[in-house]
Structures are given as C-alpha cells and as structure tokens.
Design a protein that fits this description.
The chain has eleven helices and 13 strands. It has 376 residues and is of the alpha/beta class. The longest helix has 20 residues.
Length: 376
C-alpha cells in the first residue's frame, strides 16, 4: 500500500537549502485558551498538548494563534510573542518538539475586530469581554462590529497600520529567538488581515481598500516586513481563508492571485488553505475534506505559473480525519501536505496510527521510542 503521507517534504527557503519535514502530516494551529495569567506566556498545558502531538508522529507541529501585540489577542487567555519575557516558555516548547525529531512552527496572529472576546470554552459567551472585566478596544479595517455579537472596532489609521506591521516584525524576531523553524502568518478566519482582505469587512476608500490590490496591501506589507527579518534559512508560511462562503465576499480566485504573487517573489513557501470566519457559518458545507477543493484551486493557480512544490508547499485542512482520506488528497495531487486539527485533538497519536493504517513498516512508524509497544 502506498504511503506518500509519510514521505519527507521540503519547505523551500530563500537560501536554497529548504527545511526538510519528516512527513506530510502537519498539526493545524488550534487555540487552547490555556494561558493562566493573561500574560501570553505558554504554560505546562501547551507543553503537554504540543509535546503529545510531536511524540505522536506529526512532521510539523504548529503552535496556536500567537498574538503579535496584546490588543491582537482573540481572548485574554491567548498565547503571545509581543514581549521578550514570553520567549523562554516558547523556547521550552520548541526544545521538546525538536527533541522528538519534529519541526516546530508558530502562527503569528492579530485578531483585529474579533479580539477581546471570551475564550471559546464551555460556559463562556461568544461575545466581547467588557472593559470592566478586562476587555479592550479592538481595531479593524473600518469602524463598526466585525460580527453582529461583537462590540464595534475602531478603524486603523496609517499610524495604526504601521504599528501592526511593526508588531509582526518584532514577534517574528522573538519567534527566531525561541528557535521556531517556521512562522505562519494568520490571514484567515476573519481576523485582522482577513478583515482587510475581504470586501465584507473592508469598505475603505484609501490605499488599503477598494479593489483587491488595496485590500491585500496590509497582507503584502506584513509578509514583506516579516520575510525581511526572518532568516533566509527558514521558510515563511501563511494561512488563508480561501473563501468567505458568501457571493459578495472573498473568492478563491482572488486569494490564489495574491498568493501567486507572494510565492513568485520568493516570500512565502508554505500555504495552508482554510476558509470562513466572517459570516455566521450557515452557508459553509461542512463535511469530510470540505476545504480540499480550495487547496486544489490554489495548487492549480500556482502550477499555471510554473510554481510547484519546489516553490511552495500547499497543505489542505478541514475535517481530514483518517489515513486513507489524507493519502488520497496527496496521491491525487490535490495538495502537497495535510493539516490535521480536530482529529489530532481526539488522538494526539493520529500520525503514528495513520502510518500503521497505511502499512508503514513498524520499525519506521513516526512515534516516540517510548511507545514502541503501542499497537497502532
């Protein structure tokens, strides 16, 4: 039986060497809302969570949305890299992941108008945290609420936009100091960069609004600034929402066009294609592999320009739950890798179990040696 899923993949880098990842099963970043002191510092929970995924065989383990500034947190309990004091705890995570022979990534994020919300945990409302209970004023592309249940955000001025870009730069430097192998810029799920990209939330009339060139300007500025300080020996990734699932919103052809430019410029070499985040979700056809066609569209758009896996690795995500499903995505050329989220929460050893299901020889199963007796 074939097992393309468990062949190495190289994420290209500007220095030409690339980062070799042991297999094509990646961990999607998944918010844990487990910061104890609202200081953005990773805790033992994060070490346990990410460490289990690394020991369970995933080739690339990506830490959850990590705020580039305090006001960019989704909730008060989010991770951060806006302060040097946060670096040692991130380095502890990276050291353990590396100790399992896996690559370590971190998703750098700014929630914009979807910031200052209660954690997405049982017992919490899906609304803005009041100022009296630790909430803060949010920012976005324009004035007003990003979603109906949220408090209004304030429109970012040019000075504010410059501050956001600078925050991504400084967080990137801290990610390098923590020894992360990969940085992924979060431009999906209705957060700040997506708020600028989408016509649903960006009605600006200046150089950051209007046609796609304006709406994508913030993304392009963040990518260029981050790539300029991120070492040439390390790949830069991006997570995008391929569509808003709304006829008036962002479409995959637009997203693919922007990504094609970023890859052609040698700035981005890993693209993770998700979707949604700016609607109530009622139009999203959720089901096994429901977002894979978006990855296909991006992969094909890059290929039309002669940009294949040697230029950028495209990973598919979205209810990819079993080994045969993941293998089929790769074997049929729909994507170069898969990102696994909820299935990895159910079983942190998903990758090792998938390898066994695909009949990878027992001696080659990607699991920690301490689990050699496990019958995956």
């Amino acid at each position: 039986m074939s097992h393309l899923l468990f062949t190495p993949v190289t994420l290209p880098t500007p220095d030409g060497h690339g980062l070799e990842v042991g297999n094509r099963a990646f961990v999607a970043p998944m918010c844990q809302y487990a910061v104890d002191d609202t200081d953005g510092v990773p805790t033992d929970w994060h070490l346990s969570h990410l460490g289990a995924l690394a020991a369970g065989g995933f080739g690339l383990v990506v830490a959850e949305a990590t705020a580039v500034e305090a006001r960019g947190r989704i909730s008060p309990r989010d991770l951060g890299l806006w302060d040097h004091d946060q670096i040692p705890a991130h380095a502890r995570l990276v050291d353990f992941i590396h100790g399992q022979g896996r690559a370590a990534g971190v998703q750098l994020a700014h929630a914009g108008g979807k910031a200052s919300t209660w954690p997405m945990l049982p017992g919490f409302p899906g609304t803005t945290v009041p100022a009296a209970e630790g909430g803060w004023q949010t920012v976005s592309a324009v004035d007003g609420p990003v979603l109906p249940d949220l408090d209004p955000a304030e429109e970012l001025t040019q000075e504010g936009i410059d501050r956001v870009v600078a925050s991504f730069v400084e967080a990137t430097r801290r990610a390098d100091a923590a020894d992360y192998d990969v940085v992924q810029i979060h431009a999906a799920h209705g957060y700040l960069i997506h708020q600028f990209l989408s016509p649903l939330t960006n009605t600006r009339t200046d150089g950051y609004g209007g046609e796609l060139a304006g709406r994508s300007r913030l993304l392009r500025e963040v990518v260029a600034a981050v790539r300029a300080v991120w070492p040439d020996s390390k790949p830069l990734g991006i997570r995008v929402s391929g569509t808003d699932w709304d006829e008036d919103g962002l479409q995959v052809e637009e997203v693919a066009s922007v990504l094609r430019d970023l890859v052609a410029a040698g700035q981005v070499s890993w693209i993770d294609v998700s979707s949604g985040g700016l609607t109530d979700g009622s139009t999203i056809p959720v089901g096994p592999g429901y977002q894979v066609p978006l990855a296909v569209a991006v992969t094909e758009a890059l290929a039309e320009e002669g940009l294949g896996e040697d230029a950028a690795v495209v990973s598919a995500v979205g209810l990819i739950e079993d080994a045969l499903q993941a293998e089929t995505v790769l074997a049929t050329g729909q994507a170069h890798a898969v990102s696994v989220g909820r299935a990895a929460l159910v079983n942190p050893h998903w990758a090792a179990k998938a390898a066994a299901d695909l009949r990878v020889p027992r001696s080659e199963l990607p699991r920690a040696p301490q689990f050699f007796r496990a019958r995956f």
